[in-house]
Amino acid sequence: MSEYGNMTLDQYRDALASDAPTPGGGTAAAVALSQGAALAVMVCNLTEGNEKWKMGWGDAHSCRNVATKLLELGHQLASDDAQSFDDVMSAYKLPKNTEDEMSHRRLAIQNATLNAAKVPMMTAESAYELLELLPSLARTGNGNAVTDVGVAGLLVSAACKGALFNVEININSLSDEIGGNLRNQLEKLRESCRDASREVMHAVNERMQS
Amino acid sequence: MSEYGNMTLDQYRDALASDAPTPGGGTAAAVALSQGAALAVMVCNLTEGNEKWKMGWGDAHSCRNVATKLLELGHQLASDDAQSFDDVMSAYKLPKNTEDEMSHRRLAIQNATLNAAKVPMMTAESAYELLELLPSLARTGNGNAVTDVGVAGLLVSAACKGALFNVEININSLSDEIGGNLRNQLEKLRESCRDASREVMHAVNERMQS
Q1: Does pLDDT of B9 surpass 70?
Q2: Contact A9 B31 (CB under 8 A)
Q3: A42 → closest Cβ in B9, B18, B29
Q4: Which residues of A are less than 8 Å from B38 in CB distance?
Q5: Chain B CA closest to residue A207
Q6: What local confidence, expressed as pLDDT, does residue A1 receive?
Q7: What's the distance, Cα to Cα, between the start and end of chain B in Å?
Q8: Among the listed residues B192, B188, B154, the one whose alpha carbon sits nearest the alpha carbon of residue B37
Q9: Could B35 and A13 be called an inter-chain contact, meaning their C-beta atoms sit closer than 8 Å?
Q10: Chain A: nearest CA to B100, how far in angstroms?
């Protein structure tokens, strides 16, 4: 399994650009989550402990707790996503000469596809957990870093929405019985993510005018 | 000047998370541009030359021409953005004991701030140039990679909007005479970017249902 955290930005970019099946959008979404979380941690650090922004210490503290754990989780999910996609490809390559082989292959494809939907769902849920906390950080955090909250919000929102594309494409090849629950989660999360993204942008714009 | 392309993803993420003034949101936006462009290049590669997606060869060719040059430019702008911010900080530290020193310092701050607005404007313009081409790629490119166009669109849109936050915050401390032109550009580009982002999402969603 590739450890994306150890790649240079140049190597990672070139791996994305190559026509190898992985890394693709699912990995890119998880990496964006890590980078957005890092910007959020920076703003929390520039807020907490600075007397001028004392009103924001509570929000910064809560936000840092969530964002810090996503720094590493994002890179982990980037690898997991690539692995889960490779597993789907391997399942499709299983032999299909006998009834037994065909049935084994069908089940392997189903399980691998379900997992390839669950991994980006974890990316999306983790992104949303942070996204929800960013409007408060934009309102009360260090005012000199409000544009950094804005970029964090854009990256974390891209991570959430991008991961949900990958959940959806995998669910589309599962039966309702297998993928139905995930589809419900997907639809709720997509709506919540859209609302939270708008709220962050609104809070950042308001703070920039104040 | 930091060469972000040579940093590992872990090092870059930790540099973003630290409370050092740079790298911040401007750099993160430019890096996201590079990563989004890389995904677009992948989809172009998976389209052009593949008989099944012949209808998309023209769109893929045009898109690859633009996206390829952004692979490196994004990382260059990431460094330029950090440098331009450091230059503003240095200008503020100039001595201000005499009239001459104060006047020299005022001019240095103004020039550095103008440059710190121009660099993210270049990031935003470059991002928009690619964003405009993604709806066609989503419609006619390799259908198996449509979610990758979706994630590319989200990252490139985040790069554009995020860079524009940084243009705006710097313009806000310039006189209308100095920053007026950039402000007009900013407002037009923000609107165009919002429209193009929506069009990409719409095209990706339609293609996923087809």
Answers
A1: yes
A2: yes
A3: B18
A4: 13-14, 16-17, 28
A5: B169
A6: 47
A7: 48
A8: B154
A9: yes
A10: 29
Chain B residues inside the 8 Å CB shell of A41: 16-17
**CB-defined contacts A:B, below 8 A:** 192
Length of chain B: 210
Q: How many other β-carbons are positioned within 10 Å of the β-carbon of residue A99?
A: 8
Q: How far apart are CA B206 and CA B32, in angstroms?
A: 25
pLDDT digits (tens, 9 = 90+) for A101-135: 999 999 999 999 999 999 999 999 999 999 999 99
Q: Is the pTM of this model over 0.95?
A: yes
Residue listed under structure tokens 């260090």: A142
The residue with tokens 């087809």 is B210
Q: What is the pLDDT of residues B48-74, one digit of tens each?
A: 999 999 999 999 999 999 999 999 999
CB contact under 8 A, A17 and B45: yes
Inter-chain residue contact B31 with A41, CB threshold 8 Å = no
Q: Which of A7, A150, A155, A9 is nearest to A70 (CA)?
A: A155
Look at residue B1 and tell me whether its pLDDT is greater than 80: no
Complex ipTM value = 0.97
Average pLDDT of span A12-36: 96
Whether the link from the prior residue into B120 is cis, omega within 30° of 0, is no
What does the pLDDT look like over A159-205, one tens digit per residue?
999 999 999 999 999 999 999 999 999 999 999 999 999 999 999 99
Beta-carbon-side half-sphere exposure of residue B146 (alpha carbons within 13 Å): 24
Helices (H) and strands (E) in chain B, counts: 7, 0
Rounded to a whole number of angstroms, the distance from the CA of B132 to the nearest CA of chain A is 18
